Amino acid sequence: MSSGHQIFAGFMPLLDSSLLIAAKEKGFAASEGIDLVLMRETSWASIRDRMAVGHFQVAHMLAPMPIAANLGLTPLAVPTIAPMALGLGGNAVTVSNALWASMLGHGATPDLDPASTGRGIKAVCAERAARGEPVLRFAVVHPFSGHNYELRYWLAACGVDPRRDVEIVIVPPPLMADALASGGIDGYCVGEPWSTAAAIAGHGRIATVKAAIWRSSPEKVLGAGAKWAADNPEALAALLRALCRSAQWCADPGNHSELAGILAGTAYLGRPAAWMLHGLSGELDVGGGEVRRLAEFFVPFAKAATFPWKSHALWFYSQMVRWGQIAHSAENAAIARETYRPDLYRAALKPLGVALPTANAKVEGALKAPTPVGSAGASLTLGPDGFFDGTLFDPDRLEAYINSQSG
């Protein structure tokens, strides 16, 4: 089919760029009349800036980034919408071998349980403080990232003050494993395959994962320039359909070997295909050759994995407030809420007959087991979801939640 729309999309070399890459490589974009031009970047700051100056119409973006742009928190900020998520889960917290050994000595368990590993971190922090040693240094990929908020949430819930007891710095994803190996950092939170990189090289140990800290939560979204999206509704809808078909293809285990081979190409991630298979299969090499199975480590399609829930947007906003990035107000909350656009998602995907949630938001942590929920197009089962400490996030009680987490 001839191309009717040329769309330039920035992406970072990460496992969850799969949906964009497979959309191009497997012909899903072309079948919708889209000439999808993918451009790899080396940092999230570069993605942000090239979106702002108009080099990209859309981009693989950290889920909180469009919200931060619309709140005016980023340089060169331009209005950006998130009409689709690019899957659930996909990141992990990796620590140095030395830190892991210390954590084991304080009761951390090797099963990726965030509660036990968090207690281990807390004890190590207390020991270092008592000896007058420098605080532990962790890295995340960007200030406005799920990695930053989930690392802080995990630490705080385990009694570690992320503002005082540790230092958190910014490092681009492809440099994380080398930063750990050099001794510049003690741990990091990043998307795959950059935790696998450290584990396989023998430089670190995966301590816990996003899928255990906040189950069924988004990692990246498709960010689209708001003006471009308004001026080109047919092109955006066609791209969303292509990405939906790509997500279905990426989710099929029978396609994982082929997908890993595509991602390993020098134009994309440029790393061994075997690294990609750990995240795709959920069979993580956590270090020392030990493999741990997590069926929901990265979910590309099931459980409405690409639906842009407004409750997700508001949780990220709540963490921006919690950690002092912005003051809470009704106006700011509304900006965050309206950044995610389930209306555009439903309108674009309705012809495909896929499951479309009838609600725009949900209570995070309310589903303790797989539960059928209201949907159009096809049946839909969600859950379990929520936070490892059992806390609920009700988007209708945003202010109370923010107040409960202050201090």
From TrEMBL:
Gene Ontology cellular-component terms listed: endomembrane system
Subcellular location: Endomembrane system
Pfam families per UniProt: NMT1_2
Entry keyword set: Cell inner membrane, Cell membrane, Membrane, Transport
Listed SUPFAM superfamilies: Periplasmic binding protein-like II
CDD domains reported in the protein's UniProt record: PBP2_NrtA_CpmA_like
Protein name per its UniProtKB record: Nitrate transporter
